[in-house]
């Protein structure tokens, strides 16, 4: 059965599982790079070094945002050209995408090297955490190119319809990062330098594996020298189509930066470390939900276009149930064993105790988060990007930024912890209202 027929005829549950699992693995692998570093640093270096990596994290998210801008924008164009049977143009986009990734990596590395200390100060580094954050990021910046090229070019493998290969290339880097973290930090006792070096080496191997694909027989598209020079029309198309995901990822970075600065202002380095623990746990639970999101999108979109609205509603329902099951599990764990969860990231009793309190508060309305994430993506899948963008931003920016800025003025550090559940609750109500109206129109 070809891909079009399977989307319109195969059992919805089977499709959701088939399309979601590679996406879930990919999302988790992307998160593992930073989370594993934090676990090793928190346990084998100390809370100050752990806080240093948390300060550096928003900037690393900005680097990933540029990878999404180019990678997702270019692969969207590639998919269209392949659908039009224009393989030569698709390969030109592949070559231009590669060039953009290399140029962006060089520029980001140079800027970071020159302005490293002011950047980290702006992102919330204190006199205590600055040396650790600087030491970590100074090594990581040498891997910006590996990270951008590996992450960005991996999107082209998915565009060719080979999600399992794309998943494997990411797994190679993540598993290697875990092994090297253990070797450098436990065996060689290299501290935070070991964590950074492990990440850079793992990203390099992952990048080589991805690039190797485009020179082997398996690939439909080839990376050719004649397609490397940039063309303004191609570059414009790439940046235009990738700008939405870039904006969302950039917003995530800004939010993390605001959290770091607020926690630093009202609670100091200890509060930043605690937030790092909570944020790491949140990311690990949210990533599978975003994987379900990615898996459900083509199923909902295809059947909506085919006017098979019963299948649309069934796919939406199953995706919401799956994501809600994960969000409820996250809530239960957060409320019952927060100290146990926090202990993975630090052997400091102070950090663990503060993080446990933050986990309970941060996850207060988590059971409804799965619904909000899937439902806002429904509008993207059905060709209503404005509503989808508004709902995504309502949770991540529109409601959250005012909450982060205002609540601590009245409730101190607790006010910052309450910012996320407040934003989740309000954005979920907005999402529910818009979804109810849209589903009623389908009926």
From TrEMBL:
<dbReference type="GO" id="GO:0015297">
    <property type="term" value="F:antiporter activity"/>
</dbReference>
<keyword id="KW-1133">Transmembrane helix</keyword>
<dbReference type="Pfam" id="PF01554">
    <property type="entry name" value="MatE"/>
</dbReference>
<dbReference type="InterPro" id="IPR051327">
    <property type="entry name" value="MATE_MepA_subfamily"/>
</dbReference>
<dbReference type="InterPro" id="IPR002528">
    <property type="entry name" value="MATE_fam"/>
</dbReference>
<keyword id="KW-0813">Transport</keyword>
<dbReference type="InterPro" id="IPR048279">
    <property type="entry name" value="MdtK-like"/>
</dbReference>
<feature type="transmembrane region" description="Helical">
    <location>
        <begin position="357"/>
        <end position="376"/>
    </location>
</feature>
<feature type="transmembrane region" description="Helical">
    <location>
        <begin position="235"/>
        <end position="259"/>
    </location>
</feature>
<feature type="transmembrane region" description="Helical">
    <location>
        <begin position="416"/>
        <end position="436"/>
    </location>
</feature>
<dbReference type="GO" id="GO:0005886">
    <property type="term" value="C:plasma membrane"/>
</dbReference>
<feature type="transmembrane region" description="Helical">
    <location>
        <begin position="388"/>
        <end position="410"/>
    </location>
</feature>
<feature type="transmembrane region" description="Helical">
    <location>
        <begin position="194"/>
        <end position="215"/>
    </location>
</feature>
<keyword id="KW-0046">Antibiotic resistance</keyword>
<protein>
    <recommendedName>
        <fullName>Multidrug export protein MepA</fullName>
    </recommendedName>
</protein>
<feature type="transmembrane region" description="Helical">
    <location>
        <begin position="169"/>
        <end position="188"/>
    </location>
</feature>
<keyword id="KW-0472">Membrane</keyword>
<feature type="transmembrane region" description="Helical">
    <location>
        <begin position="56"/>
        <end position="82"/>
    </location>
</feature>
<feature type="transmembrane region" description="Helical">
    <location>
        <begin position="136"/>
        <end position="157"/>
    </location>
</feature>
<dbReference type="InterPro" id="IPR045070">
    <property type="entry name" value="MATE_MepA-like"/>
</dbReference>
<comment type="similarity">
    <text>Belongs to the multi antimicrobial extrusion (MATE) (TC 2.A.66.1) family. MepA subfamily.</text>
</comment>
<keyword id="KW-0812">Transmembrane</keyword>
<feature type="transmembrane region" description="Helical">
    <location>
        <begin position="271"/>
        <end position="294"/>
    </location>
</feature>
<feature type="transmembrane region" description="Helical">
    <location>
        <begin position="315"/>
        <end position="337"/>
    </location>
</feature>
<feature type="transmembrane region" description="Helical">
    <location>
        <begin position="12"/>
        <end position="36"/>
    </location>
</feature>
<keyword id="KW-1003">Cell membrane</keyword>
<dbReference type="GO" id="GO:0042910">
    <property type="term" value="F:xenobiotic transmembrane transporter activity"/>
</dbReference>
<feature type="transmembrane region" description="Helical">
    <location>
        <begin position="94"/>
        <end position="116"/>
    </location>
</feature>
<dbReference type="GO" id="GO:0046677">
    <property type="term" value="P:response to antibiotic"/>
</dbReference>
């Amino acid at each position: 059965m070809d891909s079009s027929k399977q989307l319109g005829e195969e059992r919805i549950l089977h499709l959701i599982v088939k399309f979601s699992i590679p996406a879930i693995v990919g999302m988790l692998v992307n998160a593992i790079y930073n989370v594993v570093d934090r676990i090793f640093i928190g346990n084998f270096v100390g809370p100050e070094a752990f806080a240093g990596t948390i300060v550096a994290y928003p900037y690393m998210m900005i680097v990933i945002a540029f990878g999404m801008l180019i990678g997702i924008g270019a692969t969207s164009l590639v998919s269209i050209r392949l659908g039009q049977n224009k393989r030569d143009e698709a390969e030109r986009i592949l070559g231009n995408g590669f060039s953009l990734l290399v140029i962006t990596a060089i520029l980001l590395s140079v800027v970071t090297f020159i302005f490293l200390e002011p950047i980290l100060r702006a992102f919330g580094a204190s006199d205590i955490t600055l040396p650790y954050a600087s030491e970590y990021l100074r090594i990581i910046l040498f891997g910006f190119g590996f990270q951008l090229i590996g992450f960005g070019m991996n999107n082209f493998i998915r565009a060719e319809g080979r999600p399992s290969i794309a998943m494997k290339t990411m797994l190679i880097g993540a598993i290697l990062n875990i092994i090297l973290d253990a070797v450098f930090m436990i065996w060689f006792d290299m501290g935070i330098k070991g964590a950074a070096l492990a990440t850079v080496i793992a990203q390099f191997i992952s990048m080589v594996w991805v690039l190797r694909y485009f020179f082997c027989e398996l690939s439909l598209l080839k990376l050719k020298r004649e397609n490397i020079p940039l063309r303004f029309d191609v570059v414009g198309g790439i940046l235009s189509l990738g700008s939405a995901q870039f904006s969302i990822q950039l917003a995530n970075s800004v939010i993390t930066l605001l959290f770091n600065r607020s926690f630093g202002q009202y609670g100091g380095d200890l509060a930043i470390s605690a937030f790092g623990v909570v944020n790491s746990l949140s990311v690990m639970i949210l990533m599978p939900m975003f994987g379900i999101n990615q898996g459900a999108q083509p199923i909902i979109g295809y059947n909506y276009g085919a006017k098979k609205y019963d299948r649309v509603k069934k796919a939406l329902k199953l995706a919401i149930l799956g994501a809600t099951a994960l969000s409820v599990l996250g809530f239960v764990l957060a409320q019952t064993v927060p100290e146990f969860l926090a202990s993975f990231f630090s052997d400091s009793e102070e950090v663990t105790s503060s993080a446990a309190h933050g986990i309970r508060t941060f996850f207060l309305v988590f059971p409804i988060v799965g619904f909000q994430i899937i439902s806002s993506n429904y509008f993207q899948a059905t060709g209503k990007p404005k509503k989808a963008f508004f709902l995504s931003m309502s949770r991540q920016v529109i409601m959250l930024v005012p909450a982060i800025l205002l609540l601590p003025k009245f409730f101190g550090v607790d006010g910052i912890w309450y910012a996320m559940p407040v934003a989740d609750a309000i954005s979920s109500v907005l999402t529910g209202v818009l979804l109810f109206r849209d589903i009623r129109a389908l009926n």
